[in-house]
């Protein structure tokens, strides 16, 4: 006896690499365990438009390596209202769908939370590059985004060494500095500016001066967008070290694209399968995550209302190693 | 008071991506904590040749992104004898070196074990692409090797779809199927042959037949070298499905090269720093690893004498999702 | 007045990167100039099966970046007979198709030649990674294949430097050494073995010895498959320099895959458009190519019966620069 | 008898990928032909500082694959004065250097021109990503820069498809739209804005509207920096199509970095060798280039005073194929 018989899957919010691998895992696990499975196109907007279609094994063939999401994504104001949510639940019921897997970020989770209160069993999967969801160590897409940043900095390094300049790289992360932190550690950035840690631009400039004095041929500053803009940082640095001519690179949406890393594909595959199994076991209104290597579920309410703690230990390590 | 004052670092055995990031972390952490630090060129052979030189902050500048190892590696039969080991310990003592970080695999660990019994404090770091070291979830280089395999399979996929053929990919892993397992899950391989799981080539052929019958346009078989050769698998498949014309690709040493992934650089950075701190705290004869996200030390004896368990759950997931 | 009104396009022989870009260019140029355009699935086999379908602007959307060929490819013995060729011409006539663009290698060109004699206007586009077609400086896919080889050698370099070993890399090219030549020049290979130039393995070994004596830390030998097998070269080298432990890498079919380079996409786009314009102008039984930067047509007979000359100047340059 | 006996090589202006391959070719060809060869660090500034050192075969080992320039580059106001130029020529004479290869762009060429008038035989090599040097079809670094842009657009494509948005990509090129043109053709951009072709933003917006109306799921606009800023284009598009939410990506200095493509390495190798041979033959005050596949020299005066013509045919092809 399974707690659900027909489930649907949608992607919502900003897309992230690995969403397709998660969709594939949801579909194939569901079929493996004898469920029927449907796709919903364009997130909650598609749900309200009844843009719902049956999926089989071949629907998710050859997508594990693709960036973006074949189910597409869109914003939906209507679904933020109680009327919209009731309409959505009704449409699912009309299709005989009793379980829903939502892949996305915070806003997507809140939608799942509402639907669960209206009788649909729901599971949330953390699909966002920002790693800004609590009760999971990693979100789907984060490792790929970090890889893209590190690859871009590799390229900047060549030209920095040739000109002995410094580089300021603005990366994604409005409320969470994890992309900046992990990419900064991996690329040996001297300075990492994140929303979670206060900083003084004067100290940043001072540190740069000292690094050059100690023979560092180039200097990398990574700024999470939530901690400031690359241009502003450059202006400040220029004031106190006019000869450094810092170059600003804003990486933008390329951080969201590209084929997912093996890490993200495997994380997405494990989480997609796990969500299906938890629905079958009767759980609902839960966010799936990975904590210290173990797959776990947590109440969506708790996830949505908890700020993810920042890894100060890693931050200090990054600074210690980039002397 | 620190338990060591002067430490050295060497890389030994087959090289792996991220070894340089580990060397950088050892050197910079050691300097940060007030130690003197030396590099030993070409592993234990270099030790016996007194190929030892002081390292400073700049010695490890601009290497975090490089594959291979700037300290180079070599095999050394002499160091496998008690005389060689005593000579090595004496050379270290002559240099005033009381601590040693060894980055490598099983054989490298055994050398560290011997030296510790001769009065040198030692720490082992898992540097090998094969992920075949116990008491650590990941070795340094493993994530990069998996990425290279997955990237190669992405390329094979294009041409397989065009010709509707199947592909057999032989990857590294003599005693441990982890590269095959993780790359297989990430690339949606239909069949994953590893040394840890018995298999019948007849069943493999049968599964391929069924996949084609169910509309799969191409079929990927990954074979860890320890489980068989790609060519042998191809011959068997050809016998029972003469029309499939499987193509064999042996990925070889490209799996060891290339810039390390962000994951490997960060793992190496954390482990390198950790090894230094543990030496300072007085630990010795230990292997450093990461288990469920936490850095840990384990007695080298225990590590060397324990076979790493195979993740059957992940293996079954890979098969479940590649229907 | 255009000489053709309805044209078709097919890909044949081994696939190569950029074939999709060529198909896209053929379709969109044809539509732009007011023609109707059809796709034929699976090469000449698909033609004989009447696997023919109309294509519009959207049929070729989002394919310019994909490796392989969306039209797929297959071998077809039946089409090598006069009966098969007449059947093919008849099927085209039954569909009202008066022009055909064939993308492929030598065998594909011969098919086009036969069809032109049966009243179908034909154009051949050089789609093969081997660069083994005469009257064109570059074939579609060649630049990408060379890039893949160079990228693989970059990875091998890391590990060679770490171990001070030599590497033997076997690449594609049965009758034409161009992949070996261009990848060898680009990666600084010390030895390049191609079918067009006789060589002695003794001299190869001797050269390697000298290189090591002069301080080269690693040595790369590239072998085109038409010039010998990597394994055989390794055995010879081992005989005279037993300590070098050469490592053999056979790159295989990954050379055919992956997203095409910008160079190949643009070459394919230009040639696809050119072929359509030449059909409209009334030309037939021609192979399109690029010679010294200019797009040209040449009689297929002449192309098929001329061996491509080898660029000895470039070969000597490669050796001169890899001392 | 060679016209020069001791030559030097420097890189100047903005760095570009492939400069190292060119330096390697200059050094190794010079040695091969029996010349002595020197490197000058940091361009003309280094010359004035007598930062000159002898180079041998090993000085350029293992650099062919590196981005940037091992000789570094810097701006130098002093060398723009007659006094500076005389000082530079004198320093070269003092070292017994009678020939100089300068790798860089327009400004670098002008320096070579001045030195040649002061008795030093000079050759210029086109080292710049912008392809803005006349009398050569390609500059060293251009192919790599285009590849980086195309790779970035590949990533943007994923996320654009998921959200059905349009993307505006600003690329390098102040006076020359070639990066925009070649990357635009290769990535199927609907709109390509270059300094050489006037455009109206209204028409651009109109074209976008039509594309969406005809079913294009995403739309790419490439803007060369010399033709306008990505942000300004976005504002205009937003005015007439408020629902498209175009996303702007400014690629910046990552276009200058990364390992050079095989194409750039081979172009650089050929040109470096060619420059040395021309110096030996007694030519001076010339820029080396490649025109229709042939290596050529042209008077520097002529190169510096001629604006490179824009390839309108390719531009029209790009638009024709991106309907």
Automatic annotation (TrEMBL), chains A, B, C, D:
Substrate binds at residues 128-130, 165, 172-174, 225, 247, 253-256. It catalyses: beta-D-fructose 6-phosphate + ATP = beta-D-fructose 1,6-bisphosphate + ADP + H(+). Mg(2+) binds at residue 106. ATP binds at residues 14, 75-76, 105-108. It comes from the Bacteria. The keyword Transferase applies. One of its GO terms (molecular function) is 6-phosphofructokinase activity. Residues 6-277 form the Phosphofructokinase domain. Keywords: Allosteric enzyme, ATP-binding, Cytoplasm, Glycolysis, Kinase, Magnesium, Metal-binding, Nucleotide-binding, Transferase. The active site is at 130 (proton acceptor). Allosterically activated by ADP and other diphosphonucleosides, and allosterically inhibited by phosphoenolpyruvate. InterPro entries: ATP_PFK, ATP_PFK_prok-type, PFKA_ATP_prok, Phosphofructokinase_CS, Phosphofructokinase_dom, PKF_sf. Pfam families: PFK. It is found in: Cytoplasm. ADP binds at residues 24-28, 157, 188-190, 216-218. PROSITE patterns: PHOSPHOFRUCTOKINASE (PS00433). Its EC number is 2.7.1.11. The keyword Metal-binding applies. Pathway: Carbohydrate degradation; glycolysis; D-glyceraldehyde 3-phosphate and glycerone phosphate from D-glucose: step 3/4. Its main location: cytoplasm. Its cofactor is Mg(2+). Catalyzes the phosphorylation of D-fructose 6-phosphate to fructose 1,6-bisphosphate by ATP, the first committing step of glycolysis. Homotetramer. NCBIfam families: PFKA_ATP, PRK03202.1. Belongs to the phosphofructokinase type A (PFKA) family. ATP-dependent PFK group I subfamily. Prokaryotic clade 'B1' sub-subfamily. This is ATP-dependent 6-phosphofructokinase. It comes from Paenibacillus lacisoli. The lineage of its organism: Bacteria, Bacillati, Bacillota, Bacilli, Bacillales.
